[in-house]
Specification:
Strand content: under 5%
CATH architecture: Up-down Bundle
Shape: globular
Largest sheet: none
Distance between the termini: 32 Å
Low-confidence stretches: 1-7, 221-228, 444-453
Structural class: mainly alpha
Number of helices: 18
Helix content: over 70%
Number of strands: 0
CATH superfamily: MFS general substrate transporter like domains
Mean pLDDT: 78
Oligomer: single chain
Length: about 450
Amino acid sequence: MASSTVSSPMSVLDRLGCYLVGLETSIFDESKRKLLFALVLLHGNIVVYAFAYWITQPVLPYLSKSLGADAVTFGYLQTVTNIMQILGGAAIGRYVDVYSPRLGMVVTTLGSAVAYLSLGFSFHTALLFLSRLPTCLMQCMQVAQSYVPKLLHTYGITEEHHTSVLMGRLALSYGLGMVPGSACGGFLAEIFGFNFVAFFAGVLSLLIAAVDAQFLADVDDHKSDKKKDSATAAVEAEKEIKKSEDVFGFKNYYKLLTTNKELRSSLLFTTIITAGFTMQQSSFSVAAIDTFDVSSSEMGMLMSTSAAVGVVVNTIGIKAPVQYFGEEKAIQYASTVILMMFLVYSQAKTKLHIVVLFFPLAVAAAFLYTVMTSLTSRTAPTEEQGSAIALRHATRSVVGIVIPPVAGYVLQNYGFPATGLSAASCIFVAVTSARLFGLVARPASPNPEKKTQ
């Protein structure tokens, strides 16, 4: 007798939830309705978070320049931000695994609000640096990337093929906030001033934090309605021990890195790739003003268009290449395309050249980010996925500490072409290492089932 009959008609919200999780509507049942509502709310949270973040991004380089910061100082500003993100990311990643993804989302959203409000009060370079301290808690996307797989696991949806689609859907929601955010930031700054934009982002973040605290479900809500078996009880007992012995997760991170070869390889490849992107992105923020005379509104439109391309990629451009090539080959091919684009980018002379190059770069970058995040999340068991994602974000932040000052120095002393060639060199090392040493490899068994005697 079939047990998956739908007890009530599917609503628009149900269908949207099925799309976000990659779940066929034909196998929808009443028990999954709570899951779908949680996913829709989580994705709405990411849209607002991304919008608040990106309305400040076209503003930050211009605000720092108006306060007297040069290219090197702006690089140090990015370095401080990344130091804070490493410190916060490690603690938040372990917090999600041991305590509560829902509370993790609330805390990170509140942290974002404090960071934006502090930025709004920055009327001196010293205050601008102080405004970077609360960014240690700006980890909403990291929390979401570990929250969703845990939520699916809670509801018994553990098929491997869902992972890439899930990460693509999260990136899609992020892009839906990024597109209008990056476009509006520059225009709002020209009308109301740079500081107003930061205050506006802070208020939005406070509002979404209140919504999260009131309505966002936790991963244990569904399990609490069921009788816990001995395995579940053992896991919870282990978590209680971890709460008291390893609150910040340093021992656990060390264990993951020393025992999980696939995770180490994935993180090494990601680090090298990220170095190339950071070299290009951090130097372009300054070069766009000094070399190409790009206004804040034009910068916003450029970011918005790039984000729109990312939305399209994450909507229709993930599933087919991954199915045809496999994740490993798809990652290597996307990296090769980025290498070629950076070589051409180094020879750009006009605004038109930059605009044309940004389209293929945006496509390859969006694809690579989503598939690499999917692969990384599957290198660890479900109860450690928050930590694995945190390590991935931490590697990006470590690169962000080292590379921006270097990029500023290269730009100031050797010119714009040198930054493009330096970025291309990083990608070349990553692609070559992947082919020679197999840095990109599919995890043999990311969520192994424990055998019982």
